[in-house]
Design goal:
16% of the residues lie in helices and 37% in strands. The chain has five helices and twelve strands. It has one domain: outer membrane lipoprotein receptor (LolB), chain A, CATH 2.50.20. It has helices at 2-18, 55-67, 160-164, 179-182, 276-282; strands at 71-82, 89-101, 106-117, 123-131, 135-140, 145-150, 183-189, 198-204, 214-221, 228-235, 240-250, 268-272.
C-alpha cells in the first residue's frame, strides 16, 4: 500500500512539472516550449526562452516568422547619410510599404511621400516603386516619368524581397536561411523582455553576393513578431542606410489592386524589356 501511494505521488509530481509542456520519456524536468505556430509539439523544434536563445534558434524563428507572411504593410522611415565623416549629408524619406505573397509569386510596393534634406523642411516628394517578380516600375511625380524595367524572363519570377535587397538595404524578409551563407553573424543583444528588439551584426563575407554593397548591417528583430524592425547598413563607401518599419500590420488582408497604379497621361512612359541576349543569359 505504501509503495502504491509513493508511486502515485511521484507520478503526480511529474505531471505537475510537465503541465502545459512536453517531457521526454524518463525526464522529470519539462522540455523547452515548442516554437510558436507548431501544431504537433512532440515533433516541433524546441526554443530557449527570450534572452537565452542561440544564434541558430534566433535565425530559425526569423525564418518561420517571415515564411508565414502572406500580407505585410508598414510605415517606412528611410534615412540616408552620405559620407558621415566629411559631408554628413542627410536625406529622410517617409512612406509606406506593401507586400503580398501567393502560390505563384510575390509583390511589393513602396510609396515614398515626403522628403527632408539636412536642416530643411519636410516636403511632399512622391516616388513609387513596384516589383512583381519580373517588372520593376519606378514612378517619379516630380519629373513626371514612369519607367518599367524587366529584370527576369516572364516565366521565371523571382522573390521580390531577395531581389530588392541587392539595390535597397532590406534583408531578412525572405530566404533567411541564406543569411548565414552571405554574412558572418554575431548576436549583439537579446533582452529577456519581448518588448525589446533582438540585435544582430551582419558582416558580409568575402565571397558574399553583398560584398560590393555593404560592409556590415545592424539588424534588429522585433521581440514579439520576430520580423525585421530596423536595418542600419554601412556601405563599402561608408554611407549609412537606416530603414525602420513602423505601425506594422502583419497578415492583414488587402486587395491586389494595391499593386495597380494609374499613371497620369501627361507622364512620359519608358519601357525597358530584356534584350534577347539578356534573356538567353538569364535562362
Amino acid at each position: 500500500m505504501f509503495k502504491l501511494i509513493s508511486t502515485l505521488l511521484f507520478m503526480s509530481a511529474i505531471l505537475t512539472a510537465c503541465q502545459g509542456q512536453v517531457c521526454e520519456k524518463g525526464d522529470s524536468a519539462p522540455r523547452p516550449p515548442a516554437l510558436a505556430g507548431c501544431t504537433k509539439p512532440d515533433y516541433c523544434p524546441r526554443q530557449s526562452p527570450p534572452g537565452q536563445r542561440t544564434l541558430d534558434e534566433i535565425l530559425d524563428r526569423l525564418r518561420q516568422s517571415t515564411a508565414a507572411l502572406k500580407f505585410y504593410q508598414a510605415d517606412i522611415y528611410y534615412l540616408f547619410i552620405q559620407d558621415p565623416e566629411l559631408l554628413d549629408s542627410r536625406t529622410i524619406r517617409r512612406g509606406v510599404i506593401y507586400y503580398r505573397k501567393d502560390k505563384t509569386r510575390s509583390r511589393v510596393r513602396i510609396d515614398f511621400k515626403t522628403r527632408k534634406q539636412d536642416d530643411g523642411k519636410e516636403e511632399k516628394h512622391r516616388e513609387q516603386f513596384l516589383f512583381d517578380g519580373v517588372w520593376l516600375t519606378k514612378i517619379d511625380y516630380q519629373l513626371k516619368t514612369a519607367d518599367f524595367y524587366q529584370k527576369v524572363p516572364e516565366n521565371a519570377p523571382v522573390d521580390v524581397f531577395e531581389f530588392i535587397s541587392y539595390s535597397f538595404p532590406i534583408v531578412g524578409f525572405s530566404k533567411t536561411e541564406n543569411l548565414r551563407k552571405q554574412f558572418d553573424i554575431k548576436i549583439l543583444a537579446q533582452p529577456a523582455d519581448p518588448n525589446k528588439p533582438v540585435k544582430l551584426l551582419l558582416k558580409a563575407k568575402k565571397d558574399s553576393a553583398y560584398k560590393d554593397d555593404y560592409r556590415d548591417i545592424d539588424f534588429r528583430i522585433d521581440g514579439r513578431s520576430f520580423l525585421p524592425s530596423r536595418i542600419v547598413a554601412r556601405s563599402t563607401e561608408d554611407d549609412i542606410y537606416d530603414v525602420r518599419f513602423l505601425n506594422v500590420a502583419r497578415n492583414k488582408i488587402f486587395k491586389n489592386t494595391v499593386f495597380t497604379v494609374e499613371i497620369p497621361e501627361s507622364f512620359s512612359k519608358n519601357r525597358h524589356p530584356l534584350s534577347k541576349k539578356e534573356l538567353e543569359r538569364k535562362r
